[in-house]
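User: I'm putting together notes for a lab meeting next week and I want to include a structural view of one of the chains we've been expressing. I don't have a solved structure, so I'd like a prediction I can at least talk through. The sequence is below, exactly as it appears in our construct file.
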Amino acid sequence: MELAAVSGSLAAIGYGLAAIGPGIGVGLVFAAYIQSTARQPESSRMTLPYVWIGFAVIEALALLGIAFGFIWAQGQ
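Assistant: Thanks for the context. Below is the predicted structure for the 76-residue chain, given as structure tokens.
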């Protein structure tokens, strides 16, 4: 019985798994903003910059995940 050989890089699978965290984080950030705006609509302008800062930080982590995947794939 022969086993099939797996070839290619596992970096794509690693990044796919690493993208789950930022996806959940972005959902939580926007869900919290929608909930806070629904509770107190007059504060929506005041809290919107914090939403975009949180979104940018979470997306930066996702980009770091893909960058490290490529770096580690080149090192092997």
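A couple of points you could mention at the meeting. The CA atoms of residues 1 and 37 lie 62 Å apart. The mean pLDDT is 84.

User: Perfect, that's what I needed.
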